[in-house]
Every structure is written in structure tokens, then in C-alpha cells.
Write a structure and sequence with these properties.
Strand content of chain A: 5-15%
Helix content of chain B: 10-25%
Largest interface: A-B, 14 and 13 residues
CATH topology of chain B: OB fold (Dihydrolipoamide Acetyltransferase, E2P)
CATH superfamily of chain B: RNA polymerase II/Efflux pump adaptor protein, barrel-sandwich hybrid domain
Order of helices and strands of chain A: HHHHHEHEHEHEHEEHEEEHEHHEEHHH
Mean pLDDT of chain A: 93
Oligomer: heterodimer
Order of helices and strands of chain B: EEEHEEEEEHHEHH
Largest sheet of chain A: 7 strands, mixed
CATH architecture of the largest domain in chain A: 3-Layer(aba) Sandwich
Number of strands of chain B: 9
Number of domains of chain B: 1
Strand content of chain B: 35-45%
Number of helices of chain B: 5
CATH class of chain B: Mainly Beta
Chain lengths: 485, 124
């Protein structure tokens, strides 16, 4: 596709304003003005509109294609929730308003929505309280492990410096633990994809602060020993953090607080009706059991005895501020609307259908693709392209072949413990017809990989830039438009 | 003589120093390597500690020190040309050198035959 710089004509611009008939009010001092004119595209409004409309059509999104990007929960989010979040009464609120004198009276609706979302999430998680402040998955993890650190510190338990992280955990977990000052120790998986209990027992000692368990894990499996893991961790005086990035698989069916987790995050931008990806904004409330409540970040919304709502800032043992203002409010609103519409009965269907869809794909594709960790899966199924690799077709090639067939590729090469991993998460929002189409395409690609591997290796053929040299792009990163410098 | 780890590093003792790299098998599994980061010289490591990170088009992986010691020098050529690891993983693609090494730890590692058998094991 043509760059916008190669369109238009010198001197052309978007709008034609009449000549200035009043003094120029531009107050920028000459010393600060640029010497050479900025090189901007010189196009008409229509040229600009066409350029960006065409560009947007080349994008693949959940609004245009099946998007089974494993571990990311790229589900469809009802547009009505966008509408509610955009209502002027919410969207036009000034963020400082609740802090002004009597400002609380003008923001009761917003505070009530935040508080009620917090209560519903705490109920779904089985926890005492949830902070609505954290802004995205890794930020949630950091908040969670900081709460664990604060707990041990308050109990004078200063030697607990180690965070245990199973190898089927999310990739950001070790980074978050390290950011909070912990040393990380990896716990291997057993042949069924569960945490190796013997390895866990060996690793637990008086220096361990906690464990960060992704549940269900990145193999899309629910660790059957999760209660025993929590018990072992508690017996050693440590705390159990649940990475709830895969909460879509269990929502409404299981409350993690009930099985012994102490702290957990959920991603509103995955499970609760905010589109995921493109760098945000996200929102990741963190729920905690009773003993961690004193350390929660500020502010939090409280309900007064007279039924009104207020922001509370004074918690002596709080870990303090982790984000400005009150979390990503617009995203909290989407979650609020989503939860109210689904209700207790509807929310169970979310996880049931997410798990059913993934297992349907798993069983249908098993004759064509290998599964390194066999058995029922939760919301996503992880295949291994080992059979295809023997013919020279790798997971990467299969992903590119899917693009040619109008489907966004699944996650590949993650989790790291699966060879040539292909991680498929259909979510509950896809119809059976669309899932069947995807299955057929995957079968076609498997057959083609067997009979004519070169055809698959050539993909993608239909994209604007064909096959990119990803190695060269990573080794010699160059993002500048040299010809226009 | 080289010895090998289950995490696919090799280590060779030359005089009082040890040279560390990743195995040909690991380089092949990772695919085209795009970036190598090695911890600073003078860092003391015990066996199993990360000495750096190797990033490929597929994944970023830690490289663990097969034995205890102190990082003496990193292979600076990898900064400009990380692909050396793909072309010559067990020679020119060495990652770093250690001093003050623990010889006993070296003896416990796999020899080439043991490592070759280890990587032939079927998927778990």
C-alpha cells in the first residue's frame, strides 16, 4: 500500500480557512520555533480519509475475523457496554470532582458503579475486598506481590525473599516478582501439566514469600492439586497468588478464594467486556482475602452508613498509590454493565461455553495435530506442530497459512514448555458454524502440510507485504522512513 | 572436554577458566537468535543462576550457568551479530567466560553421550 507521503501534492491541505483579519495570536517565541518546516503529508481531507479507511480495512480484529489468540481471551464485547461507558454523565466527569468540597454529591453515580463492581468481583473471586486501581495484567501482578511483601514485612518476616513460579505460569510473573524485589525460583511441571508437587515441597522453606500460580495454567489446564498446593504453601508460612488472566475458564463455577488463594487479579480487558490488545487501556482489579485487606492501595470507594459513597485514602498499612485517580474508570463501567446484564446465571454460561468450545476444537483436531499434554482442557487447547515439523512446516507457517485463509492466528511458541506450540482460545462468543469453519481450515492446512509442505511454507500470499524477514527485522531494527528524511 | 546441562548449556574448562555457551540442539530449537544480553563482568554466579538472556524470533530464554564462578568476560561479538550462535553454537558462539570456577560441579554434569541420549528422549 502507498504511504500517505506519496499521496497529495505540494501545498494541498485539509481545509481552506479565510485569511486572518485579526492580529496573529501565536505567542510561541521565535527562539523556540523550528527553522525548517515540518515534513507533513500534504493531502486533502478526502485523501486522508481514504488513506486511513483503507489502512483500517487491512487490520484483523475481533470485529472482522475469528481471533483465537490463546491466553489473550479475544472475545467479542457487546457494543452496548461501550455506549454506557460513553454516556456523558460518566465520560465528562472531571477526575478531580470527587475530591472537591461537596464534590462527592456530584459523583455519587460514578462512585456507586465502582463500588458495586468491586462488590460483585469480590463475590466472584471469593475474597473480602478488591482494589479497582491496577491498570493492566502486569501491573496487577506487581500490586499483588507488593501486597504479599507488605504482609510479610508487617509480620516481621524479613527473610522471605523468594517467589516460586511454576513453568506453566504467565511470562510476566517472574518479571513482576523481580520488580517487587523478590528472587524467583521456577517449579517444573509434571507430565500431566500440573505443578510437580515433589519439586514444590523441596522448594518450600522459611525464605519463601509466596507462589504465583496461573490458574488455569498456560497449557489451558486446571491443576487438580491446586488446593494441596495452596495448603503446602500456607504450611510453609507463604502466601498464594493466583494469576487470573485465564479467569474466563472458571468464572461463576469456582471462587479462587474458597480453595485457598490469598490474592488474585482478573483482567477486565479480557473477561469483562473490554477489547483486549493494541496497548490498552486495560484494567485489572486485585482481590484479597481478609488478612491482606489492610495493605490494599488507596484510594478505595466506601459506602457510608447513610447509603452515600466516598473515596477513602487513610489506611495506615496501605502499600500506597499505585495509579493516579481511581483506576481506568471507563473500563470498570463496561464490566459493571456486563455483569449486570449477565447476572449470576449468565456468568456461569460464559465459562461453560468457553470450555466447551475449546474442547470441541481439541477433539476435532486431535487426529491432525499432536497434544504434548493430553487430556481435557479448559478455555484453550494447546497443540504441538511436531508432526508437521517433520515435513518442514512449523507452527509459524501454520499461523501464516491461517492469515491467508482470513483467520487471525492463534498464539504460537507459547507456552515455552510445549514444542512448536499452537495455543487456541476460541472463547464463548463464537458460534458453532464459525468454530466449524476454523476447524476445517486447520484440517486443510494439516493435509496440505503433509502432501505439499512448500505451499504452506510460502504463506502468507494475500497480505499487503507478503512474508516478512522477521529475523532481519529483529536484528536490524529500522523504523524510520529514510526516503522522507 | 565439554560437559552439558539439562537446560542445554555447554561448558568447557580451559586452564583455570570455564567457557559457556548453548548447545547446537538449543540453538536449533530457538531458531534465529536476534539478541543476546549477558550479565556484567564481575558478577558472581552459582550453578543454576541466569548469566544472561538469549532472544530469538520465537522466545526469550534465560541462559543458566552450568557451574559456579565469576563472570570474567562476555563474547562481545554477539552484540552486533547474535546469529553467530546459530552458525557456530559450540565454537565461535560462546557466550561468556567464568573464573574462580567450581571444578567439582563440572564433574557432575552430563558428558556428550549422556547429553545426546537426553535430547533423544521422547516428549514427556
Amino acid at each position: 500500500m502507498e504511504l500517505i507521503y506519496s499521496k497529495g501534492k505540494s501545498g494541498r491541505h485539509g481545509s481552506s480557512l479565510p485569511k486572518l483579519d485579526v492580529p496573529d495570536a501565536n505567542s510561541i517565541p521565535d527562539s523556540l520555533k523550528r527553522k525548517k518546516a515540518a515534513q507533513m503529508p500534504e493531502v486533502s481531507e478526502l485523501e486522508a480519509v481514504r488513506h486511513f479507511t483503507l489502512l483500517s480495512r487491512k487490520n484483523m480484529g475481533v470485529d472482522s475475523t475469528f481471533y483465537p489468540l490463546g491466553s489473550c481471551t479475544m472475545k467479542y464485547n457487546p457494543k452496548v457496554n461501550e455506549k454506557i461507558a460513553a454516556m456523558p454523565g460518566f465520560a465528562d466527569l472531571h477526575p478531580l470532582l470527587p475530591q472537591l468540597r461537596r464534590g462527592g454529591a456530584l459523583t455519587q453515580g460514578a462512585l456507586a458503579a465502582t463500588h458495586e463492581t468491586e462488590r460483585m468481583l469480590s463475590e466472584l473471586l471469593g475474597f473480602s475486598q478488591t482494589t479497582m486501581q491496577p491498570l493492566a495484567g502486569a501491573h496487577d501482578e506487581l500490586t499483588g506481590v507488593m501486597l504479599i511483601a507488605a504482609y510479610h514485612k508487617a509480620h516481621g518476616d524479613k527473610k522471605r525473599k523468594i517467589m516460586l513460579i511454576p513453568d506453566a505460569a504467565h511470562g510476566t510473573n517472574p518479571a513482576s516478582a523481580a520488580m517487587a524485589g523478590f528472587d524467583t525460583v521456577t517449579i517444573p511441571s509434571d507430565p500431566h501439566g500440573n505443578v510437580d508437587l515433589d519439586a514444590l515441597k523441596k522448594a518450600l522453606n522459611e525464605n519463601v514469600a509466596g507462589i504465583m500460580l496461573t490458574c488455569p495454567n498456560t497449557l489451558g489446564m486446571f491443576d487438580k492439586n491446586v488446593k494441596e498446593i495452596c495448603d503446602l504453601v500456607h504450611k510453609a508460612g507463604a502466601l498464594a497468588y493466583c494469576d487470573g488472566a485465564n479467569f474466563n475458564a472458571i468464572i461463576g463455577r469456582l471462587r479462587p478464594g474458597d480453595i485457598g488463594f490469598d490474592v488474585m487479579h482478573v483482567n477486565l480487558h479480557k473477561t469483562f467486556s473490554t477489547p483486549h490488545g493494541a496497548g490498552g487501556p486495560g484494567s485489572g482489579p486485585v482481590g484479597v482475602c481478609e488478612k491482606l485487606v489492610p495493605y490494599l492501595p488507596v484510594s478505595c470507594v466506601v459506602k457510608r452508613s447513610d447509603g452515600t459513597y466516598a473515596l477513602e485514602y487513610h489506611h495506615k498499612e496501605s502499600i500506597g498509590y499505585i495509579a493516579p485517580f481511581y483506576g481506568n474508570f471507563g473500563i470498570i463501567l463496561r464490566a459493571y454493565a456486563y455483569l449486570l446484564v449477565l447476572g449470576r446465571e449468565g456468568i456461569v454460561k460464559v465459562s461453560e461455553n468457553a470450555v466447551l468450545n475449546a474442547n470441541y476444537i481439541r477433539v476435532k483436531l486431535l487426529p491432525y495435530y499432536d497434544q504434548q499434554y493430553p487430556g481435557y482442557c479448559m478455555h484453550e487447547c494447546v497443540f504441538s506442530a511436531t508432526r508437521q515439523t517433520e515435513k518442514g512446516v512449523h507452527a509459524l507457517n501454520i499461523a501464516k497459512a491461517l492469515i491467508d485463509r482470513g483467520i487471525h492466528p492463534p498464539t504460537i511458541y507459547f507456552p515455552l514448555i510445549v514444542k512448536e506450540s499452537i495455543m487456541i482460545e476460541p472463547t464463548e462468543t463464537e458460534s458453532k458454524e464459525d468454530i466449524d469453519k476454523f476447524i476445517q481450515v486447520m484440517i486443510d492446512i494439516a493435509k496440505l502440510a503433509d502432501s505439499n509442505p512448500e505451499e504452506v511454507q510460502k504463506c502468507p500470499m494475500t497480505t499487503p507485504v507478503k512474508r516478512l524477514d522477521e529475523t532481519q527485522a529483529a536484528r536490524k531494527l529500522d523504523l524510520s522512513l529514510k526516503e522522507y528524511e | 572436554m565439554k560437559r552439558y546441562t539439562k537446560e542445554h548449556e555447554w561448558v568447557e574448562i580451559i586452564g583455570s577458566e570455564a567457557v559457556i555457551g548453548i548447545t547446537a540442539h538449543a540453538a536449533k530449537e530457538l531458531g534465529d537468535i536476534t539478541f543476546v544480553e549477558i550479565r556484567p563482568e564481575g558478577t558472581a554466579v552459582i550453578s543454576g543462576d541466569a548469566i544472561g538472556t538469549v532472544e530469538s524470533v520465537k522466545a526469550a530464554s534465560d541462559v543458566y550457568s552450568p557451574i559456579s564462578g565469576t563472570i570474567l568476560a562476555a563474547n562481545s561479538e554477539l552484540e552486533e551479530e547474535p546469529g553467530i550462535i546459530n552458525n557456530s553454537p559450540e565454537e565461535n558462539g560462546w557466550i561468556c567466560r567464568l573464573k574462580n570456577i567450581d571444578i567439582e560441579g563440572f564433574q557432575k554434569l552430563m558428558n556428550r553421550d549422556e547429553y545426546n541420549n537426553y535430547i533423544k528422549e521422547p516428549l514427556k
